[in-house]
Design brief:
It is built from 18 helices and 23 strands. It is of the alpha/beta class and 609 residues long. It folds into 3 domains: 249 residues, FAD/NAD(P)-binding domain (3-Layer(bba) Sandwich); 104 residues, no CATH class; 89 residues, no CATH class. The strands form 8 sheets. It has a 5-stranded parallel beta sheet. A 4-stranded mixed beta sheet has the order 1-9-8-7. Strands 14-13-16 form a 3-stranded antiparallel beta sheet, with helices on one face. Strand 22 and strand 23 form a beta hairpin. The longest helix is centred in the middle third of the chain and has 24 residues.
């Protein structure tokens, strides 16, 4: 008996020895575009960070899922997404004909994207990456969390103050007890005029993409006939201009991304129930067969037998490791972003744009092959800011969500799941998670301005002003004044999109700045009553206000400004106190002398007195 107890004791001691408890500041679960960006930003902010990815590659949808042609945010390439674009360009710089234009559509081979991300993360101090590491569970640990992972055949525990759920389907937040909604929201629920009358459980179709390689005219790369294959399912492709589809989806090294929408394509209709853990295996099997049938049809019926599946993924059927998932369920956050926050951000009671942690210019997708799904008639869709409160899970301290689980309505969600948008957003999420860990605070105490300042320090953006590029010497001042709301953007429709412009050379109107200046500064009301500026705000008005706020002698201030106008501030127009002040001049001097960005705001964007 004693020997048996001794054996059991030694067995448990060995098991305990294999298990490990790891302490860190931030843990990011999910190595997709948002997860990689969140982990890099957190680590660069000097927080010990661990990135957990269940698969062998980083990049999620854009590598493991092969969604590797990125059209969105190319006119707003900032921060870590701009750095990723540059790293891809460097990877292919010797490739003849590769388009390295600043705002070109980004195209890359999935395996190349994964390689670039791995090499990038390997160079980041404070960051540990664990590939092929499944997430098992999560539970509260005081104000932090305990995360369970499977590593080398046993379960390890990671203790962290902040957790970022960057999984494709919100699995971490689900296990943590977050509350979700899914499908089409009703107009009654959200107050959105574009919303449907009744809610539904329908979500956007997923697509199991494929990468084909041209092996030459003489090659025959025809795959075995897939299980359940039916020619009729793909017959409508005979009417499609397949050559044009292939030309538009061309990658590098004679490869093509197969992402055909609609009849006979890759799309596979799902609801959130189909994506539950217990249903995923069957859903994914059917989606893969849908795509394999498409490939077989292209090869046997349309004569493309020379196009064979790329072998870069290492899977048995040579399809990507994961599907491209456009939508699932959305967590309830500290705020919920609605479509009005995109179209009329400055006219709402809440001012969520003031709490921005990232920018986007993607048009919402509407990918449904099921007949009768409501079609939303979106007006030209503006570029917009993504609010901090939408990535923070309600009633769950220090738990952040990205990918498809953001706290937004269905109408907004379709524009946020593109990898280019997610990488931009991920940087902001990493800054927020890092802030909580660094200052030992919870998400109930988030300091919007300090988090935004960190994002700007590391090259990110808050406002989607497409006419103020990152290289502009006044970029930061304009970003900060824009985020304060003192000077707002102008929407300019362009097809199905709308640019947001700052228009730096136009004049400042008194009526535009007076209400907020009165709200921000106690002495502003007295100054406006005394000065009575005209319809257009002049250089004299601005200098008078600066003099009032800084208690500087007016004559001295004017003399200093005249001397510094072009040499220091690099303004292009001559110093003339009588002329209207431009928006650029106002932003730069306001940011320096009375700094509206320093006024704290809550998560709804309202000023904190």
């Amino acid at each position: 008996m004693f020997k048996k107890l001794l054996v059991l004791f030694l067995f448990f001691q060995c098991a305990i020895g294999y298990a490990e408890t790891i302490k860190t500041d931030v843990v990011v679960i999910g190595g997709g575009a948002s997860g990689v960006a969140a982990a890099i930003q957190s680590a660069r902010s000097n927080l010990k960070t661990i990135l957990i990815e269940h698969g062998p590659w980083l990049g999620g949808s854009m590598t493991s899922g092969a969604f590797c042609i990125l059209e969105n945010n190319r006119n707003l390439p900032t921060g870590l997404y701009a750095e990723f674009r540059q790293r891809i360009n460097n990877y292919y710089k010797l490739r003849l004909g590769y388009d390295t234009t600043l705002n070109a559509v980004l195209r890359f081979e999935p395996s190349a994207g994964a390689s670039v991300l791995k090499k990038w993360t390997d160079t980041v101090k404070n960051l540990t990456v664990k590939l092929n590491t499944p997430f098992v569970g999560i539970k509260k640990d005081g104000t932090g969390w305990e995360v369970s992972i499977t590593a080398n055949g046993h379960t390890d525990i990671i203790k962290a103050r902040s957790v970022v759920d960057a999984t494709e389907l919100g699995d971490v937040a689900t296990k943590a007890g977050a509350i979700f909604n899914t499908g089409f929201d009703s107009r009654k629920d959200t107050g959105e005029e574009l919303a449907t009358t009744n809610p539904t459980n329908q979500i956007q179709d997923l697509s199991w993409l494929a990468v084909l390689k041209d092996y030459g005219k003489a090659a025959d790369k025809t795959i075995p006939k897939p299980e359940g294959y039916s020619t009729g399912k793909y017959a409508c492709l005979k009417k499609a201009e397949v050559k044009k589809l292939l030309a538009a989806s061309q990658l590098i090294n004679d490869k093509y991304l197969i992402n055909i929408e609609g009849c006979g394509g890759n799309q596979y209709s799902v609801t959130s129930n189909d994506l539950l853990p217990e249903n995923r295996a069957d859903t994914y099997k059917q989606a893969r067969l849908q795509t394999l049938g498409l490939i077989y049809y292209l090869q046997t019926e349309l004569g493309y037998k020379n196009l064979g599946l790329s072998e870069e993924f290492g899977t048995t059927d040579h399809l990507p490791l994961i599907p491209y998932i456009r939508e699932n369920k959305r967590a309830y956050g500290l705020v919920r972003m609605v479509i009005g926050d995109v179209y009329t951000p400055y006219d709402r009671g809440s001012k969520l744009y003031r709490t921005s942690i990232g920018i986007a210019d993607a048009v919402p997708g509407q990918h449904y092959i099921t007949p009768g799904v409501p079609k939303i008639n979106y007006p030209p869709f503006p570029a917009y800011s993504i609010p901090l409160g939408a990535v923070v899970v309600k009633d769950q301290d220090n738990l952040f969500v990205t990918e498809k689980a953001l706290s937004v309505t269905h109408l907004v969600n379709g524009s946020m799941t593109d990898p280019a948008v997610q990488m931009t957003l991920g940087q902001g999420v990493g800054a927020a998670a890092g802030w909580c860990a660094f200052y030992k605070k919870t998400t109930k105490e988030l300091d919007v301005r300090k988090i935004q300042d960190e994002i700007l320090i590391y090259g990110g953006s808050l406002m989607p002003f497409s006419d103020i590029p990152k290289k502009d010497s006044d970029y930061r001042a304009i970003q900060q004044v824009g985020a304060s709301g003192l000077l707002t953007g102008y929407q300019k429709p362009n097809g199905n999109r709308a640019e947001v412009l700052f228009m730096p050379d136009t004049v400042v109107y008194t009526a535009d700045i007076k209400p907020l200046m009165n709200d921000m500064y106690a002495r502003a009301f007295l100054w406006f009553n005394k000065t009575q500026p005209g319809e257009v705000f002049t250089v004299t008005n601005l200098l008078s206000y600066i003099s009032e706020m800084s208690l500087t002698d007016p004559a001295t201030l004017q003399k200093v400004m005249a001397a510094a106008w072009k040499p220091k501030y690099r303004f292009t127009k001559n110093f003339d106190p009588k002329r209207p002040v431009t928006r650029r001049e106002f932003a730069v001097l306001a940011n320096k002398y009375f700094n509206p960005f320093s006024r704290e705001v809550d998560l709804s964007g309202k000023l904190i007195n």
